[in-house]
Specification:
Biased composition (Low complexity): 1-16
Distance between the termini: 82 Å
Number of strands: 0
Strand content: under 5%
Helix content: 40-55%
Order of helices and strands: HH
Shape: elongated
Region (Disordered): 1-20
Length: 73
């Protein structure tokens, strides 16, 4: 009879190991940038945020530039 794998085990093997960097001279801001902004796990969410902010401000710029063309004469 086959054994059952432990709970939470992946059928694809062990998850990739995350690289941990311990630099005693690193500031909290640079650690935040490294762990939250530039980490590969967070790239997709960060791109969604950047895209939504760009569309928002692009809409504001478009309305300020061409908004008068939308008013019927």
């Amino acid at each position: 009879m086959a054994r059952r794998p432990p709970a939470g085990a992946s059928p694809f093997g062990a998850p990739p190991q995350r690289r941990v960097i311990h630099d005693p001279n690193e500031s909290a801001f640079s650690r935040f940038l490294r762990e939250e902004i530039f980490s590969p796990e967070n790239i997709e969410g960060n791109l969604k945020i950047v895209t939504s902010v760009a569309v928002f401000f692009g809409g504001i710029a478009a309305m300020r530039t061409w908004g008068e063309l939308m008013i019927p004469a």
